Amino acid sequence: MKRIILISAIAMAAGLTSNAQLSIVIQNNDKVFESSKIDTIINHVEQGDTIYLPGGSIVLSAELRIDKEVHIIGAGHYPDSTSATSFTNISGYNIRFMPVSDNSSFTGINLYYDLYIGGSMDDSISNISILRSSINNVFLGYANARNLKNTFINLRECVVRGSILGGDVQHVLLQKCLINGRIDNFTDNAVFKNNVFLYLGSYSVFRTCSGLSVSNNIFVRDDHGLTASEINNNLFRLNIVPVSGTNMGSGNIVYNAIDTLFINSDGDGLFSYETNYHLHPDCDGIAAGTDGTDIGIYGTTSPYKEGAVPFNPHIRFSDIKQRRRMEFCRLKYMWVLKNDSYEKDPCSMLFSGPVIRQPSGPAYDYRGRILDRQGL
After folding, report:
1. Which of helix, strand or coil describes residue 317?
2. What is the secondary structure of 346-374 as a DSSP string?
3. Beta bridge partners of 32
4. Helix (H, G, I), strand (E, B), or coil: what is residue 218?
5. b/e string for 59-84 if b means 16 or more Cβ within 10 A?
6. Could you tell me if 26 and 45 are in contact, meaning their C-beta atoms sit under 8 angstroms apart?
7. What is the pTM of this model?
8. Alpha carbon 237 to its chain's center
9. Interacting residues of 140 by C-beta distance below 8 A, sequence separation 6+
10. Does 146 or 79 have the greater pLDDT score?
11. pLDDT of 258-269, one tens digit each?
12. Confidence of residue 145 (pLDDT cuts 50, 70, 90)
């Protein structure tokens, strides 16, 4: 499998600012292809390729249709974890996985619009993984039409700012996600574990859903709307009866106040990068999951990754100006750096004084000549 790296030389030269123009480059042996449009790039990748997107803004000119196995990895979407590179933001149109895109993945991206799996009711797509991304709405079938052919869809550690519409797709795992909206149209063979359902609208969190496995989740609303489902070890708002009617399960906990649920929360039901979703020390959900870990996204033996940092090598901090300044001093004035630190800053001494003193070893003047340490 060929590995494709997309770099933005223009963005890097501009200090990796979010409004820099992105230049995307594919290199395949001695062949190089460059474009500023990801939809053009998609047409040139091969089955199984990996695309690394830099931080910055990518604006689609039309819906992006992925019709082959491809793995798209961005720089992340949390502002505090992408301050060195900016977050990867795709806007303009939706993204749609098409037939023959089986085994694809989508990681570390802020998608301004919606993500679809399938272009018609007859499509059959399997093994799509959506990881550590922020997305508006997620359609696991074509426009939420019933589609029993799409299978093995995996959403993990994502922020869904809207709703998830299942289309009765089979073999779905939704784990460690933060979801603002509703969960619609799931029937059988769907597992919801360690999520936080933030929905506070006028409908139930789950609508037209039955036969599901729902465990270790947190419900901010007081009505789940499930039928014929297995409901175990979830945290529910006051006044809810977690298991009733055709539902089964045990170990569910009812809490009274939102201010004892998370470390900090304004309780408005919407995801915020400012909220700390670790459980409050007084929360009954600590170590109360079916596996003995916390209920919510920081449960399981592999909790939610802080900052939803993607799997690729990640830059958290960059001081480009200081690095260029030091390189300028070293090259222009021939500084020989033999130790890890100096008593004074080399560049300030370069312009204001004749000498740098090192903790050990010889001292150098601004031309790089060795000086007698006793004369300093």
Report:
1. coil
2. HHHHHHH-SEE--SSS-EEETT--EE-GG
3. 27
4. strand
5. ebeeebbbebbbbbbbbbbbeebbeb
6. yes
7. 0.78
8. 28
9. 117, 147, 150, 153, 164, 165, 166, 167, 169, 172
10. 79
11. 778 899 876 566
12. low
